[in-house]
């Protein structure tokens, strides 16, 4: 989904797929030389994909012969899976207009609750359902408090603290071990593909479809873009802001279960490092922290870039902390590139000074959806 589509849908415009609209974000824009504008839009929206392909080519020679292999590709995908699932949680929160910092706590609490239920002898499906319920409950509480006027960062930090304490109380302060009933979604491979990669693929496919092809998803993004505009067209914006928090909590719960399935234990101590990696992946995708605009597929590419860099450095025998440095530099470059491209697109899409309301229809018209 392009940023133009996101910008348009943030005010309720109709995306491809037939979703009805309330308002239109932009009028049709006159662009002679539309090909150049479309190239700039593509570079702005998918520059991160070009960056990843460039890194793959460079590392294929630099870390030859072990990097550019199917076995290493599977390792990179598996390593990116956990970052990607938590990045989806961060992304859903940001798209609805708030950065959810309680994600590690939601993941930890969901994993501990699921582990205790499974270890008690209850069916595995019940433990998984309980984990999802935890994510829904945390998201609903966070969203409700934020809609009461409390600061989202303060609310989610408080939730992280409370959830960490609750997880330690529930587990007795020690990891819940011996959870080997979830190996089918942890260390198992299907057709050579690690199970976490398949789970993440399903989550991103469903999330992409929801945000781009459903009325509810469009409204979630619209609330993140301009909540007052959404209210003015008669939509109950508060419920969609809360829904964004709930979706974030669900993804966090799935991430916690994936970690438990991979390690066969549920630790009561949240991993803040996973949150930082997730935020980095979201930032690499060019998604603004103000919300309302972004793309889940680009977030996925951001997570893969982080894993790709780490893999190449490990193969070369370089200490892993250099991966953090390289990722930080790429993040700054990616943000700078996105800003330059956005400015160039805005300049090219600006109507000519001589244009008036009485002018006839332009010969070439490009709508935000077409761009």
From TrEMBL:
InterPro entries: ABC_transp_permease. It is found in: Cell membrane. This is ABC transporter permease. The chain crosses the membrane at residues 46-64, 70-94, 101-118, 124-146, 153-170, 190-211, 242-262, 274-292, 299-315, 321-338. It is a multi-pass membrane protein. The lineage of its organism: Bacteria, Bacillati, Actinomycetota, Actinomycetes, Micrococcales. The keyword Cytoplasm does not apply. Residues 352-371 are annotated as: Disordered. Coiled coil: none annotated. Keywords: Cell membrane, Membrane, Transmembrane, Transmembrane helix. It holds the Pfam family BPD_transp_2.
């Amino acid at each position: 989904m392009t940023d133009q589509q996101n910008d348009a849908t943030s005010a309720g415009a109709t995306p491809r797929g037939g979703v009805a609209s309330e308002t239109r974000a932009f009028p049709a824009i006159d662009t002679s030389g539309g090909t150049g504008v479309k190239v700039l839009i593509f570079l702005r929206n998918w520059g991160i994909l070009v960056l990843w392909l460039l890194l793959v080519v460079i590392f294929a020679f630099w870390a030859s012969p072990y990097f550019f292999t199917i076995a290493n590709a599977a390792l990179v995908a598996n390593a990116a899976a956990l970052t990607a699932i938590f990045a989806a949680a961060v992304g859903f929160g940001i798209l609805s207009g708030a950065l959810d910092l309680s994600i590690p706590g939601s993941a930890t609490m969901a994993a501990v609750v699921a582990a205790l239920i499974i270890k008690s002898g209850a069916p595995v499906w019940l433990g998984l359902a309980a984990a999802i319920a935890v994510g829904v409950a945390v998201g609903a509480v966070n969203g409700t408090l934020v809609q009461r006027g409390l600061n989202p960062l303060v609310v989610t930090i408080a939730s992280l603290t409370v959830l960490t304490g609750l997880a330690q109380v529930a587990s007795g302060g020690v990891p819940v071990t011996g959870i080997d009933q979830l190996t089918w979604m942890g260390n198992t491979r299907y057709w050579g593909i690690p199970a976490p990669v398949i789970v993440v693929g399903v989550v991103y496919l469903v999330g992409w479809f929801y945000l781009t092809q459903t009325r509810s998803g469009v409204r979630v993004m619209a609330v993140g873009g301009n909540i007052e505009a959404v209210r003015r067209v008669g939509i109950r914006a508060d419920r969609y802001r809360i829904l964004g928090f709930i979706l974030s909590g669900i993804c966090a719960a799935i991430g916690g279960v994936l970690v438990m399935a991979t390690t066969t234990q549920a630790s009561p101590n949240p991993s803040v490092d996973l949150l930082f990696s997730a935020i980095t992946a979201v930032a690499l995708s060019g998604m603004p922290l103000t919300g309302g605009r972004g793309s889940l597929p680009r977030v996925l590419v951001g997570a893969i870039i982080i894993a790709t860099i780490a893999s190449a450095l490990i193969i070369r025998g370089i200490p892993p902390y250099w991966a953090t440095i390289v990722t930080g530099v790429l993040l700054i470059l990616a943000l700078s590139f996105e800003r330059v491209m956005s400015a160039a697109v805005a300049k090219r899409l600006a109507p000519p000074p001589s244009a008036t309301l009485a002018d006839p229809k332009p010969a070439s018209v490009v709508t935000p959806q077409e761009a």
